[in-house]
Amino acid sequence: MFYRYGPGPVGDHWWLMLVLFLLLVAAVVAVGFLIFQRSRPVAVAGAPDPAEMILSERLARGEIDEEEYRRRLAALRERFRS
After folding, report:
1. What average pLDDT does this structure show over 56-74?
2. What's the rounded Cα separation, in Å, for the pair 81 and 64?
């Protein structure tokens, strides 16, 4: 007759169930992270910065002069560079 002596229906292999569960959780988290990353818009190299476009439009409409445009453009580029 076969008798089972152990902590439960898994017997002495409870650690294997724990490892498999942790791998399952890690896989679910990884898939969720990949889906989240793909749903975010990606900046295209060479694409104009929206803030710079707005600043250029303000210059074109005459809301700001060329000196203020250059000062603000330098400030924008410095802020995003660091």
Report:
1. 94
2. 24
